[in-house]
């Protein structure tokens, strides 16, 4: 008796599935056939102007933090894009990629003469336009995580090394 009840329940469930799969879904408006438009403008933006001062202050708090390739937190060490991503996330709660070129693609291009504190500066240090980056502090200075055997420090944009490798500036605002 019990086996018959279980068998009937299984058959009833199977019938429900067949009926549900065999019904025609209700008509809906067809999706547009043209491809989705790719954003032509940057997609990352911080709206609060107070974040600029906080980004500068927070990045200065990371001075002397050890460098680590791929590093994304001060305890383990930071690389250049890891430092920028970490600072922005701590200050604004928004996450940036851990890649200088991707960060450049997501942020608004500005001229070097328009740099303001908390803007991002990019350098070509290995044959790639956006292979290194830092956070602009003002007065021609920026903070960055330089390389292995180094630590987060302040440099000048007009130093011989960085002036010849400057590849652009971007704004988070």
Notes on the protein architecture:
By secondary structure, the chain is an alpha+beta fold. The chain is built from 5 helices and 8 strands; from the N terminus they run H-H-E-E-H-H-E-E-E-E-E-H-E. The chain has one domain (50-171): Alpha-Beta Complex (endopeptidase fold (from Nostoc punctiforme)), CATH 3.90.1720.10. The strands form 2 sheets. The chain has a 6-stranded antiparallel sheet with strand order 3-8-4-5-6-7. Helix 2 crosses helix 3. The longest helix has 21 residues, at 2-22. The chain starts with a helix and ends with a strand. Residues 1-39 have low confidence and may be disordered.
- Report how far apart the termini are: 73 Å
Which residues sit in consecutive blocks of at least 5 with pLDDT less than 50? 1-39
Mean pLDDT: 83
How much helicity do the residues have? 25-40%
Strand residues, percent: 15-25%
What is the succession of H and E elements?
A: HHEEHHEEEEEHE
Largest sheet features = 6 strands, antiparallel
- CATH evolutionary superfamily: endopeptidase domain like (from Nostoc punctiforme)
Number of helical regions: 5
Subunit organisation of the chains: single chain
Give the overall shape.
Answer: globular
Q: Enter the CATH topology name.
A: endopeptidase fold (from Nostoc punctiforme)
CATH second-level architecture: Alpha-Beta Complex
In total, how many beta strands? Answer: 8
Class based on secondary structure composition and strand pairing = alpha+beta
Assigned CATH class:
Alpha Beta
Domain count:
1
């Amino acid at each position: 008796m019990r086996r018959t009840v279980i068998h009937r329940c299984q058959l009833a469930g199977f019938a429900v599935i067949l009926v549900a799969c065999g019904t025609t879904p209700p008509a809906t408006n067809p999706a547009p056939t043209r491809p989705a438009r790719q954003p032509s403008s940057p997609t990352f933006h911080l709206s609060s102007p107070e974040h600029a001062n906080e980004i500068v202050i927070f990045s200065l708090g990371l001075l002397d933090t050890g460098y680590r390739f791929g590093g994304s937190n001060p305890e383990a060490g930071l690389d250049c894009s890891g430092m920028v991503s970490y600072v922005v996330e701590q200050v604004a709660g928004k996450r940036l990629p851990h890649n200088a070129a991707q960060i450049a693609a997501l942020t608004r291009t500005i001229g070097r003469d328009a740099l303001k504190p908390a803007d991002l500066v990019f350098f070509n240090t290995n044959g790639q336009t956006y292979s290194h980056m830092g956070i602009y502090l003002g007065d021609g200075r920026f903070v960055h995580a330089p390389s292995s055997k180094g630590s987060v420090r302040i440099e000048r944009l007009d130093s011989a090394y960085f002036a010849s490798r400057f590849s652009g500036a971007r704004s988070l605002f």
